Each structure stands twice: as structure tokens, then as C-alpha cells.
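General statements about sequence and structure are easier to judge against a single worked case. When preparing material for the folding task, we compiled for one chain both its residues and its C-alpha cells. The amino acid sequence and the C-alpha cells for this protein are reproduced below:
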Amino acid sequence: MSHTAHIPSHRKPRRSASKVVLRSGVAGGVLSTIAVAGAAGPANAEPVTTQTIEMPTLTSGLVGDFTRSAEATQRIANSLDLRAQQDAAAASAAQTAKKAKAEAERKAEAEAKKKAEAEARAKAAAAERASRTAERTTLSASSSSDSGSGSGSSSGSSASTASKTTSGATGSAAAVLAFAQAQLGDAYIMGSTGPNAWDCSALVQAAYRQIGVDLPRVSQDQSTAGTQVSLSNLQPGDILYWGGAGSAYHTAIYAGGGEFIGAQNPSSGVVKKSLDWDPPSGAVRVL
């Protein structure tokens, strides 16, 4: 009999054990190890079998892909922002153009209205000039008729017409007043010297030029151009002035019958008015 035939075996059944270690590199070779181990039993158990599995490492190529993807996303965002800015700029330009168009249309309408008014005024002035020309022609014909006829009725008619125009003025004074009378209704414009617009001293100067008398251009000088006369001793054709002699600011022509003819102001134009309407300061006699 063997000496070991009845000796029970001390070998215990082998227990299986495994230990798995996972190793992988992340983002450029960073390694992590995950170990899974089973209990191996008592200290005198057989050695544990270890198995290592190699995992693929993320290379720089993948990092480059991530970078390119981020850059592409940023480019898209920049493109959208640029498009939004372009749309806003286009909307602002359209609004500005719309306002400019409206302003241009308003100005064109105002210019058209202004032109129409100017044409209307020109037509009215032309009609007024034609009327004055006809009146002067009629007066001239009446004067000629009176000179060649001894008829009492003709003389009476002529005297009536002359009275309306010159209030009894004769000779040179009548010619001065006839010219001034023909300008009634013309506009007053400072510095204008005719033929359809006047200032006060220009009208006086032009009226006296008809009889060959050359007066100074401005009111101050006209107020001392002749002999000073009293306002109670006026004769048709006398020059009236407002202000002091030598410092007058306005002149007109005495028409007789307590009236004067003058280019008064922009709102009145050339008018025939009573001395009471605007009493003068003094007068000078040139004729």
C-alpha cells in the first residue's frame, strides 16, 4: 500500500480569476487604465492571470478635425452676422432714399407753384402795362383834339380828363404827373428803377427825366434839389419828402388837389393818396 494512499489531497479546487486592464489614450495620448479584478481566494491561491487590451489612441488628426469643425462653425456665425449687418444697411439706405425722393418731390411741387404764380403775376403786369399804354394813347389823342378844335364841349372833356390825371397841372408839371400816373399799380422794390418796379426816389427821378430835368438818385439829395416851399403853398409837380431836408428817407410827387403819387412800400406799390394818409415833412420846387 502506498504511504500516500490514504492521505487526502490538500489541493483545493482552482478558482478562476481574471483581471482586465483597459488602457486608452485620449486627446493626444493621455492614458487611462480601467482594471477589473476578481477575488483570487486565500493568500496561497494560484497566481492570477492578467490580460491587457490595447485600445486605439486618439491622434492629432482627430484634434485637427475638431478644430476645423469649430472654425467652420465660427465662419458660419460670422457670415450670418455680416448678412444681418448688410440687411440693416440696405434697409437704412432704402429709408434714406425714400425720404430724399419725398423731399425732391416737395421741392419740385413748390417750384412749380412758384413758377405758376410768377407767370400769373407777369400776365397781370402785362395786362396792366397794356392798359396804361392805352390810357396814355387816349390822353395824347384827347390833347391833340383839344389843340385843333375850338369846340367848347371838347375843351370841357379834356379839362375833366386832365383834372383826373394832374389836378389842373400844366406844362412840364403835367408831363411829370402824367408819367407818374401811368406807373400806378407798379410794384415797389428797393433799388428798382423801372420800368415795372420802382423805389420812391427812382420814380421821382424818372418822372422828371421826361422833361429833361436830371435829379439826384436818392431821397436825401432830392430833398434839397430845389427851393424849399411851405406845405401850405404846394403846386402840382413839387417834390414832397419825409424826414429832414438833406436826410429824407422818402420822396413823392405832389399831384394837386391835396394828393400825391409815390412808390410807397412793398405792400402798397405805386399809389395815389391823400396827404392826410401820410403827411410829408416838407417840399421842394424844381419847376
Remarks:
- The chain has five helices and eleven strands.
